[in-house]
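Summary of Year 1 activities. Much of the first year was spent building the evaluation harness for sequence design. The harness presents a backbone, in tokenized form, and records the residue chosen at every position. We chose the following record to illustrate the format because it has been used consistently in internal testing since the harness was completed.
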């Protein structure tokens, strides 16, 4: 299949490494677990949004915008990587963050400040709902703003994960076996949509399972519907003549617990086990929850012990430093 080439700038270090988690696999007595280290993309402590921003910021620059605006939760990794991408591209950055200004800045929020982003507090709205108001104001003040949607999850941003599957296929040649599963945290849906498009384009014989992170809908849509629509939009954008159906999208909602960002034993155990057996840090909101899900799936024998699993580490490390109260007990 021929894929249309999109504008892209370089913001991170790719390919991100893949390696085996032997000690964790042994401890669990389950399948071979491998990890894809998107926590090591390099952009101000890394993460999956670096991939999306390579396309989004390129689009902003090609449209002659001078300001980027996006939104998310107080500890948004997406906002932090956007702030870093703007800093390195010479663009102004406005972030619309949920909650109210806290007394001290920690984790991602501290980094946003250091990276020079201008922060707007939006109270109970944590998914960029207030962006349009601020865009109007920015335009009135003579700026040319570019809106990056919540999680960077439109077709342009999510297309990055189509290319990420190509990257994975090149790396897979090194290993003698294929990955039966890819497991990762799925939240605004862009990562997930890009991966399933990539799977079809590059003929990857792997089951792609997103672990749901957020109970709440985005713009009134179920996560599955959003991922499906986004996958079809990406296919359009890239001039691919393929269409996706609902059974292409697998989201496991079993681990959403008390909702987005509510840290529980599931996340704490997963973070501690991965740290203790592999020297790898997971974050409490996304990767800790997804690894907790994977550990549970392995213990329940929903995955055969002879299979190979690739856990996609999507980053989020700075938020560990904002959650010591929940993590240390
Ligand atoms: C944003 C994010 C995700 C979810 O990716 P989506 O494309 O929004 O579904 C997962 N993990 C981390 C660490 C993130 O910051």
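For this record, the design step produced the sequence shown next.
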């Amino acid at each position: 299949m021929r894929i249309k080439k999109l504008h892209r700038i370089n913001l991170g270090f790719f390919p991100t490494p893949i390696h085996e988690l032997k000690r964790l696999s042994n401890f669990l007595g389950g399948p071979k677990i491998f990890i894809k280290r998107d926590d090591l993309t390099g952009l101000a402590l890394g993460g999956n949004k670096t991939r999306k921003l390579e396309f989004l910021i390129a689009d902003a620059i090609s449209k002659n915008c001078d300001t980027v605006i996006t939104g998310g939760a107080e500890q948004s990794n997406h906002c932090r990587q956007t702030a870093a991408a703007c800093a390195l591209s010479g663009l102004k950055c406005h972030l619309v963050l949920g909650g109210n200004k806290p007394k001290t800045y920690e984790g991602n929020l501290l980094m946003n400040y250091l990276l020079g982003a201008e922060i707007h507090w939006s109270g109970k709205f944590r998914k960029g709902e207030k962006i349009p108001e601020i865009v109007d104001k920015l335009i009135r003040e003579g700026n040319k703003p570019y809106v990056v949607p919540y999680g960077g999850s439109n077709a342009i941003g999510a297309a990055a994960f189509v290319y990420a599957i190509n990257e994975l296929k090149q790396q897979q040649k090194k290993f003698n076996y294929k990955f039966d599963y890819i497991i990762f945290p799925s939240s605004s849906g862009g990562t997930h949509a890009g991966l399933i498009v990539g799977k079809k384009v590059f003929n990857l014989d792997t089951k792609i399972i997103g672990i749901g992170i957020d109970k709440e809908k985005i713009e009134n849509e179920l996560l599955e519907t959003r991922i499906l629509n986004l996958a079809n939009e990406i296919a359009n954008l890239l001039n691919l003549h393929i269409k996706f159906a609902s059974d292409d999208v697998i989201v496991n909602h079993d681990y959403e617990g008390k909702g987005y960002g509510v840290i529980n034993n599931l996340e704490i155990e997963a973070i501690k086990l991965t740290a203790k057996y592999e020297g790898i840090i997971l974050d409490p909101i996304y990767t800790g929850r997804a690894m907790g899900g994977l550990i549970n799936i392995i213990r329940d024998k929903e995955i055969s012990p002879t299979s190979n699993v690739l856990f996609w580490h999507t980053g989020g490390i700075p938020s560990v430093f904002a959650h010591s109260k929940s993590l240390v007990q």
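The mean pLDDT is 96. Quantitative recovery figures across the full test set are reported in Table 2.
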